[in-house]
């Protein structure tokens, strides 16, 4: 073992870290269940993370004590529900450091946030305009732009990655030009774990006159995010990968941009006045929030963010980094294992293939051992194509994972090699 692995393992298995993680694990009821008679080892956090008791209780308490539709009623319940929902918006605002609360639009998740921008902001695009994405994008940050290109006549450009899974900055810069209207890129790749140098990429895109949307679905649970510091124009994320509920997410947009954009869905809450002759629209952010939202989800997302804040993102990042370093070094030493995604700046994701064993078979053997990982293309088929594989096995870490769980994973991989080797 080299120094780095010893250091990482030491950090992740230091008694104080172990005690802190053991304490945090108590907050997650699902971590106490078994799968096939084995303790659950949950390493599918990039698909969705588990929920702490405070988030589960927050949703239940809403339905038990507050349930009412918001923004409409004069009765007490409606007012209290509205206050709780709007307080969650302030929590989100502080979490990603936006200048104004109107810049936080509640949506269903990252996918819906990106579709909102493609549909609404996209109305300003003309034939010949260009949209630049990267080769490492999730399908949610590819397909809405393809649809927009079909509607508008704009052209989709793709900045390539290298064989470590890093964005090729030279190519990215070359692809930016006077026709580039919009750049959409991920902060943290869900298939590779690569962290993009977003601040620098935003500056380059702005210099070319393009607006930038950042897909923060993975990043928000692993990195402190300050949208003003990044200076991105839009930032999208989901609650459910951040220890919060499914069905709730956030679109941040700079107020001046959101203000100038047309609504994308019509209905209740997004209007000021409706007649059959014409309708005027509500102020930000409500202009983009048609219909009754996921009220309980929004409030519980606030609870999830408070929980993450209590643990502290820097501490979470340091712990996950130690786990990833340990898992990477161990995996790199295993015969027949190929790591997919070896960027210098990475977080929380170990993606790999096992020679001679199909990823789904690896996943099945791991499941027998109680280990939950994702196998497949991870909604990033172009990434799979780049590396010439149909699928990978992906283990992804969260604040409650341990070195012992990584060891269970590694043992189960060896078992898969024996069974199928
Ligand atoms: C999960 C994910 C999405 C999609 O998020 P939804 O919650 O399914 O809308 C988009 N981009 C990345 C990088 C993701 O990891």
Gist?
The protein is 42% helix and 16% strand. By secondary structure, it is of the alpha/beta class.
Could you please describe the fold and organization of this structure?
It is globular, with a radius of gyration of 22 Å. By secondary structure, it is of the alpha/beta class. The chain has 15 helices and 17 strands. It has a 7-stranded mixed β-sheet, with helices on both faces. Helix 1 packs across helix 12, helix 3 packs antiparallel against helix 11 and helix 13 packs across helix 15. The protein is 42% helix and 16% strand. The mean pLDDT is 96. The protein folds into 2 domains: 126 residues, Alpha-Beta Complex (Aspartate Aminotransferase, domain 1), CATH 3.90.1150; 254 residues, Type I PLP-dependent aspartate aminotransferase-like (Major domain) (Aspartate Aminotransferase, domain 2). It binds pyridoxal-5'-phosphate (PLP). The site of pyridoxal-5'-phosphate has 12 residues, from helix 5. GO terms for molecular function: cysteine desulfurase activity. InterPro entries: Aminotrans_V_dom, Aminotrans_V_PyrdxlP_BS, Cys_dSase_SufS, Cysteine_dSase, PyrdxlP-dep_Trfase, PyrdxlP-dep_Trfase_major, PyrdxlP-dep_Trfase_small. It is an enzyme of class 2 (transferase). This is Cysteine desulfurase.
Task: Using brief descriptors, characterize the structure shown.
Cys_dSase_SufS, single chain, binds pyridoxal-5'-phosphate, Aspartate Aminotransferase, domain 1, 4-stranded antiparallel β-sheet, 421 residues, EC 2.8.1.7, Aspartate Aminotransferase, domain 2, 7-stranded mixed β-sheet
């Amino acid at each position: 073992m080299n120094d780095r692995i010893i250091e990482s393992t030491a950090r992740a298995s230091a008694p104080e870290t172990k005690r802190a993680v053991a304490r945090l694990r108590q907050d997650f009821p699902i971590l106490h269940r078994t799968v096939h008679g084995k303790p659950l080892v949950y390493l599918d956090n990039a698909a969705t993370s588990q929920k702490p008791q405070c988030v589960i209780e927050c949703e239940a308490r809403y339905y038990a004590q507050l349930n009412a539709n918001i923004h409409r009623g004069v009765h007490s319940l409606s007012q209290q529900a509205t206050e709780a929902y709007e307080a969650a918006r302030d929590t989100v605002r502080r979490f990603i450091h936006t200048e104004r609360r109107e810049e936080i639009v509640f949506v269903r998740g990252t996918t819906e946030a990106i579709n909102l921008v493609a549909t609404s902001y996209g109305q300003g695009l003309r034939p010949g305009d260009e949209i630049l994405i990267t080769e490492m994008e999730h399908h949610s940050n590819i397909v809405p732009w393809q649809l927009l290109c079909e509607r508008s006549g704009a052209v989709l450009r793709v900045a390539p990655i290298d064989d470590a899974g890093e964005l090729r900055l030279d190519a990215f810069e070359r692809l930016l030009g006077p026709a580039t209207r919009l750049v959409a890129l991920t902060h943290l790749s869900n298939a590779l774990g690569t962290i993009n140098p977003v601040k620098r990429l935003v500056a380059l895109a702005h210099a070319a006159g393009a607006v930038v949307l950042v897909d923060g679905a993975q990043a928000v649970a692993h990195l402190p995010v300050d949208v003003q510091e990044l200076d991105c124009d839009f930032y999208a994320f989901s609650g459910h990968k951040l220890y919060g509920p499914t069905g709730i997410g956030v679109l941040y947009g700079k107020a001046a941009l959101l203000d100038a954009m047309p609504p994308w869905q019509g209905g209740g809450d997004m209007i000021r006045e409706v007649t059959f002759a014409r309708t005027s629209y509500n102020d930000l952010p409500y202009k983009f929030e048609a219909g009754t939202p996921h009220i309980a989800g929004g409030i519980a997302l606030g609870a999830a963010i408070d929980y993450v804040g209590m643990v502290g993102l820097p501490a979470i990042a340091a712990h996950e980094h130690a786990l990833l370093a340990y898992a990477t070094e161990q995996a790199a030493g295993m015969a027949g294992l190929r790591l997919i995604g070896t960027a210098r700046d990475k977080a929380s994701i170990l993606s790999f293939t096992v020679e001679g064993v199909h990823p789904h078979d690896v996943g099945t053997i791991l499941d027998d051992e109680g280990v939950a990982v994702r196998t497949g293309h991870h909604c990033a088929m172009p990434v799979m194509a780049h590396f010439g594989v149909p699928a990978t096995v992906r283990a992804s870490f969260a604040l409650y994972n341990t070195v012992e769980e990584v060891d269970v994973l590694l043992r189960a991989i060896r078992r898969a090699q024996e069974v199928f080797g």
